[in-house]
What we know:
about 70 residues, globular, single chain, mainly alpha
Amino acid sequence: ALACFTEGEKGSALVVGTKVVLTRLIQLITHTVFAVQYPAVITLKNLVHGPTKQILAVVEAGVMPHVASLL
């Protein structure tokens, strides 16, 4: 559901800056089930296609090392 909210500039602005959402996103990305990981990665993709402030929020939340572990 978060992937839908993060599509487009207006929707992504609602989610960004919410540390709770980014923390939960990390939990979902590190889940062992692919069906849980995939929507989380799509949400992340939507977030990092936003403004610089939004991208920095994702990076500062520490999401990227968890994404790298998926590779």
